[in-house]
Predict the structure.
Amino acid sequence: MPDIRVERLAKSYGKQRVLDEISFTVRDKEFVTLLGPSGCGKTTTLMSIAGFLTPEQGLISCGDVTFLDTDARVNVAAERRNLGIVFQSYAIWPHLTVAGNVAFPLKIRRQNKRTIKARVAEVLDLVEMGDYAGRYPHQLSGGQQQRVALARALAYSPGVLLLDEPFSNLDAKLRERARDWLKQLQHDLGLTTVFVTHDQDEAMALSDRIVVMSAGQILRVGTPEEIYREPADRRVAEFVGLCNFLTGTVRAGVECRVITSEFADGIAVRGEVTDGADVTIAVRPEDIALSADPGAGPEATLLDTSFLGDHYQSRLALGDVELIVHTSTRPDPDALHVHIPPGVATLVT
């Protein structure tokens, strides 16, 4: 399967800049997610790759084929890009059976009846919908309709799979099962895949790499672990999971420490920063330790605690700062000395 290359992609609607010269690459057989809030430009990017939108500037290529090059005035029509696409609404035909929906793109490509019949049966078995070939969309659940849409996208053996929030219409349990199934299918087929979502859990569970977007720009590209542990940008840290932020001054030495009003002895952080610089650090709730030992760190006041099944989430007041902390046991209000271990805090801009 081919790589996808996007360079300097720009798109505006009137005075609003929807895409601001973004660039990224999706490697062969890789599952890459465009993640961000509504209006960040992720669907516009996907539709530009698909050929349904035409950017004012940029280059999009798939393997050795150039789909778009505004400088060279190249713009390959959507139907000639050999891409499989699944929309948020599924967009399956209500008057056609499951088999008829899957056969439709093959008929458009003038395949013979025998080939169409065999291919339809093959892809329906692939998505575990072979027993539903004769049913109509209104006779299917949301999850089944989603699989029909995916089967239709795979019917003509596309080089790349594009998915625009395909699980948004499913309930939480079904969405979790669907994403596990999709990841296995993508791995088995070795499909180069671009997935769009605003759901951070989906992005973390499915992706080889994540492209975090905001206001038409790319904030961060990395593996799920890199995005979560080293967000680099405060907006990324805020969007992906819960995070605590502390401000202070760098004190360089054997290790880099940030002195804050709450932590007079400083917090050891990763990375090298100029001595005396004013910085912001991010700390995940599960990385904060609570202790009865006064020597462990400053004392906090418990504001409230919620039980969330596999952990407790507590809000603590520490000076003028409010911290969110995750623990495996309910915190003792009389034993709330806060310790941030070396290396868990990361610098953000």
